[in-house]
Structure formats: C-alpha cells, structure tokens
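---------- Forwarded message ----------

FYI, see the Multidrug transporter record below. Original note from H. follows.
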Amino acid sequence: MQKESKEKVGLLLGAIGVICFSLTLPATRVAVEYFGATIVGLGRTVAASILVGIILFIRKEALPSRQHFKSLLIIAFGTVLGFPLLTSFSMESLPVSHGAVEVALLPLSTAGFSIIRGGERPSLKFWLSSIIGSLAVIVYAIHLGLGSFQLADFALIAAIIILGLSYAEGGKLAKELGSWQVIAWSIMIGAPFFVLPVIFQFSPSMLHAPIEAWGGFLYLTIVSQFLAYVAWYKGMALGGIARVSQIQYLQPFLMIMFAGLFLGESITLFTMITALIVVFSVMIGKNAPVLKKEGSATEILPSSKNQSDNQPL
C-alpha cells in the first residue's frame, strides 16, 4: 500500500475508533449507576477476556515475544486498568458533558508521549493547532462554569495522561505485533488480576439492573474495550500517532451529542461554535508535517497539502 493510501486508511480507521470511544462515557454513566466503578471499570475487561481468549485460541495466535511484553504492560496499565477504572469513578459524580471537555485534552497527551515512545517529532504548526484546540476546550469549560476541581476531576485528568501514554505505545507496537493483537494481549495480561476485585464487589442485586445498564456494560465490554481499540491502533500504525491523534478533538463533542441523544443532556449554541473551532484546528493539524525518525535517518511525513483534498478525517 502506498504511503498516501496508508495515511488515508489510517485516518479513516482513527475516525471510526473515535466515534466508538465517544459512546464510552455515556455508556459508563448509565452502567456505573447500577454496577459501581469496580464492576464497570474492571469487570468489562474480565468479560472481554472471554471473547478475546476465544479469538486467540481459534486463530492459534503465538504468544508475544519478550521484547513486546514491556510495551504490553504499559498499554494494559492504561487501556484496561487506569482509564476504565478512573473514568468509572469520575462518572459516578460528573455529568458526561463535564467529562467530555476534559477528555478533549487527550490529543495533547497522546502527541506528547509519541515524542518519547513513538519517535515522532510534530512540527510547530502541529503544536500550534493543538494549543488552539485545547484553548477552545478550556474556554468552553470556563463558560459552562464547571467550578473548582474535585477528586473526580483529578481522577479523569490522571486517566487522560495514562491513556495518552497507552495510545502512543499501542500505535508504535501495532506496527510490529498487529493492531487487534495489541489490545487483545493487553486484555489477557490484565484480566487475571481483576477477577478477585470483581467477585468481591459483585452483588446478586446487580442481576436485576435494567436493560439499558446491561446494554451500556456490554457496549463497554465488546466495543470500548476491544473493537474500538482495534480500529484505533491500526489507524495510528498506518497514519502516524501524532497526526491521527488530532481526530480525538472531535471526541468531546461527539460525547456531548450522544449524551444529549441518550441521556437528555442539553446541547447549546456555544457548544456548537466551540466544536467548529476545534474541528478547524483538527484540519490544520492534520495537514501539518510530522518528522519521524527511521533508524539514523529522519523522514518527513508529507503534508496533506500534497494529497487529495478529499482526504477523510
């Protein structure tokens, strides 16, 4: 596949992953009310491990090599432990719209760690577009009058930092191990440690939770914890970690839209205006050149200005 086509496919897969992730906080908000943070945060990994284990067995996948194990531990710490557990705790007290504006800082976290773990060097244009997008989100948060930070806010910010590292590590490892294998083996590494906490927190009364709570939990298990990561890691492997991470700026506003659709939270005109500003910054950042080291040589990934104007997000 030519480099130009790979970047297009990578950006498209990244967009699919972001859409899937955008339903994570709304689904968590519904499920955590009935199951609690531990069951929702860790139980979804235990449940997902059953599906993933079957897939790995049927495909007769070989175990990852020792050189991949360190990266898988980093990814497991973020994607199957830190982010699910911390966001579940946050959603017990925060509305989705509150969490969404903070999750908008995730692209900066991902791009920052891509410098350390992915060997990428985003250009000044890239960083300026990232700062513009982040400032728009901050102004939006202040306008909403979210008030002083509480423990749930700190938990969510910590989740964003941890997940940024996992995203960057996963995008790098996906090139060597395969996109779906990265999250699959991360789930299998983390799940055994979560079984006992889930058993201790489980209550028979949870079996009588309404269908929407079970629907949210199943979505988190199958899509948020596995399928969305397959698309996301493959997208970063093909399109570049820093560039594909720009698409995440759309995520908070998709979250707010889904929160309005499924949870009845309001969508204001100011939200839509801010969304347009953020989308514009995504388009600028997407076209910014990104330096990438290949061994001793330094390659400049081509700007989208040299590509088709119809390149998908």
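H. also flagged this: Residues 24-59 form the longest helix (36 residues).
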